[in-house]
Specification:
294 residues; alpha/beta; eight-stranded mixed sheet; 8 strands
C-alpha cells in the first residue's frame, strides 16, 4: 500500500495504491459517501494478478481538498493529473455506486486513455429522458434528493448532522441504512471484514466534514458535463435487481445509451452485493487493458 498526495490546480488529492506497482493500472472510484479506503481487494491478491489499483478521495472527502461547484465531469481532470504525475499513460476504470458516474466521465472525456470500464450499481443522469429517476428508491433516498433539490443550505445541515454522528460512531451510518436494506444486503454487510472496511471508509470520508457528500449529491442532480456517446471503450454495467438505493432501471437506461455496453443483472443481488462482485470486475477491466495494449 502506498499513500500519495498529488496537487491539481492548487488542490491536494489523497491517493492510495495497492498491488503490483508494475501491473496493469486500474482506477477505482469509491461510493457516496466514501473514501479511497472503501471496499477493494487485498493488496496481495492484486499483486498476484498483476494489477496496480489506484483510488483517490474525490474533492471534499478524506484527505482531498474541496472543490466547490464541481461536476461529475471534473473527475476526469483529477484522474488525468494523477495519471500524469505517476507516469501512467493508459488505464482502466471501475466505479461502484456513486463512483459509477465519475468512472463514465473518465471514459467519455479521455477516450484515448481509458481501456475498459466497469460500473456497479450506479445512477443515471437526473435528466435522463424517459427514466422515472426516483422510482424504486427507498423513501429516505427520495427525501434526501428532495432536500438537495430545495437548496444547498438544507442539504448541508442534514449531511453535517449525519457526518458528525458517523465520526463519533461509524456504525451509525449502517444503522441509518439498516431499515431499508433487503435481506441479501443485510447478509453482505453482516460480514465482519466488510463491516469493518465500510466503517473505516466512513470515518475517513468525513474526516474534514460532509463537503464531499454534499458536492457528490449536487453533482448527480446537475448536468454531468459529458455525453455518453463519447465513450468508446467496452463497458460492463453490473446491477442487482433488488437494489433499492440505485434502482436497476438506471443501469438499464445507461445500457441503452452507451455503445459497447453490456448489462449484468444477477438474480437476487442488491446494492451491497456490488462489494463482493468488485474483485471480479477489477480483474475484468485489467485483463481487457492488457489485451488492448498487445
Amino acid at each position: 500500500m502506498t499513500q500519495l498526495s498529488i496537487i491539481n490546480d492548487g488542490r491536494r488529492l489523497a491517493v492510495e495504491e495497492w498491488g503490483d506497482p508494475r501491473g496493469q493500472p486500474v482506477f477505482l472510484f469509491h461510493g457516496t459517501p466514501g473514501s479511497r479506503l472503501g471496499p477493494h481487494p487485498r493488496g496481495s491478491v492484486l499483486y498476484r494478478h498483476g494489477i496496480r489499483l489506484l483510488a483517490y478521495d474525490r474533492p471534499g472527502y478524506g484527505g482531498s481538498e474541496r472543490a466547490f461547484g464541481r461536476t461529475v465531469a471534473d473527475a476526469a481532470d483529477d484522474v488525468s493529473t494523477i495519471a500524469d504525475t505517476l507516469g501512467i499513460e493508459r488505464f482502466s476504470v471501475v466505479g461502484r455506486s456513486g463512483g459509477g458516474p465519475h468512472a463514465l466521465a473518465c471514459a467519455a472525456l479521455m477516450p484515448e486513455r481509458v481501456l475498459r470500464v466497469s460500473v456497479l450499481a450506479a445512477l443515471a443522469p437526473r435528466d435522463a429522458p424517459g427514466l422515472d429517476w426516483l422510482n424504486g428508491m427507498t423513501r429516505a433516498n427520495r427525501e434526501d434528493y428532495a432536500v438537495a433539490e430545495s437548496g444547498l443550505g438544507p442539504l448541508a445541515e442534514e449531511y453535517a448532522s449525519r457526518a458528525a454522528a458517523a465520526r463519533l460512531n461509524p456504525a451509525s451510518m449502517m444503522v441509518h441504512l439498516d431499515p431499508h436494506l433487503p435481506e441479501v444486503d443485510r447478509k453482505v454487510v453482516s460480514d465482519s471484514g466488510i463491516k469493518a472496511m465500510l466503517e473505516s471508509n466512513f470515518v475517513e470520508a468525513f474526516r474534514g466534514g460532509p463537503g464531499g457528500w454534499i458536492d457528490d449529491t449536487l453533482a448527480f442532480l446537475a448536468p454531468w458535463g459529458f455525453d455518453l456517446d463519447q465513450i468508446k471503450a467496452r463497458v460492463r454495467l453490473w446491477h442487482g435487481p433488488e437494489d433499492v438505493f440505485a434502482p436497476i432501471s438506471h443501469s438499464r437506461w445507461l445500457a441503452s445509451r452507451i455503445r459497447n455496453a453490456m448489462l449484468i443483472a444477477p438474480r437476487g443481488a442488491a446494492h451491497f452485493s456490488a462489494v463482493t462482485e468488485l474483485p471480479q470486475e477489477i480483474s475484468w477491466v485489467a485483463a481487457g487493458g492488457i489485451l488492448a495494449l498487445e
